[in-house]
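Ticket 4471: requesting a sanity check on a complex prediction with cytidine-5'-triphosphate. Repro inputs:
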Amino acid sequence: RRRRKKPVRVYMDGCFDMMHYGHCNALRQAQALGDQLVVGVVSDHEITANKGPPVIPLHERMLMVGAVKWVDEVIPDAPYAITEEFMNKLFTEYNIDYIIHGDDPCLLPDGTDAYALAKKAGRYKQIKRTEGVSSTDIVGRMLLCVRERSLGGSHNHASLQRQFSHGHSQKVNDVGFGTGTRISHFLPTSRRIVQFSNGKGPGPNARIVYIDGAFDLFHAGHVEITTFNISLVVHGTVAEYMDFSKEESNPYAVPMAMGIYKQLNSPLDITTSTIIKRIVSNHEAY
Ligand code: CTP
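Returned structure tokens:
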């Protein structure tokens, strides 16, 4: 990072619906192009108008983006396309030097490039989109869960698939909404893992907090609970499956017996099932 000189401020926008490591990798690369990263999270209304309703409402998407270590500031209700007016606001009010987006084409419903103005102004920079992960694929996998759990009966998945394919329609075919969607196409090489770590181990007197969980579909409820500063084995009150009645089905039997287990009041009432229900009701409404 530069010292003394005026910091380079970069801006990345996006929907960040059902945030995944592709989004995190985009934020990591964007931050590396400057000193400070400002992220604009697109409003529910703008997403609905451009690609169908988001699964995750704005305030939860803000919590997720804001929790990423490479993000310095979060702007709510960002527009889907960079308009002249908004671009000037970024330059004058937010002191933004560059506008960043992944190298995938980002087209508006009328077929024009959402970043055309920023490109013309010479203030656009690109990062590499992470292959093998997308919200479309995640929705596909969740619909498989719905089918398997028969939570909500049988549905025509085609329109949901379409709803999440906006602008990346060419990708829908290779996503494959079959059983293969359970297989991750992402390769976490040791180089990639190092990119995501801060390279520092804990100090000799560090308090080390342990929390476990499946973290299948990481959501705002997870982000909020990790802000507690408790050096115990902790678990939230809200969870997908909580049957502590039988000793053998209680995953926390050991820490409980050792007296180091504490239950936290979950700050948000979200589980993966909540999100699956949102997808199903969006599907029914559209
Ligand atoms: N992004 C990325 N790699 C992915 C997915 C997204 O680099 N696999 C980047 C996008 O290029 C963009 C930012 O993350 O700069 C925010 O993306 P977003 O607006 O949320 O939408 P999508 O590109 O539609 O992401 P997805 O296909 O996962 O819905």
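Notes from triage: Strands lie at 9-14, 36-42, 73-78, 98-102, 124-127, 210-211, 233-236, 261-264. Leaving this open until the requester confirms.
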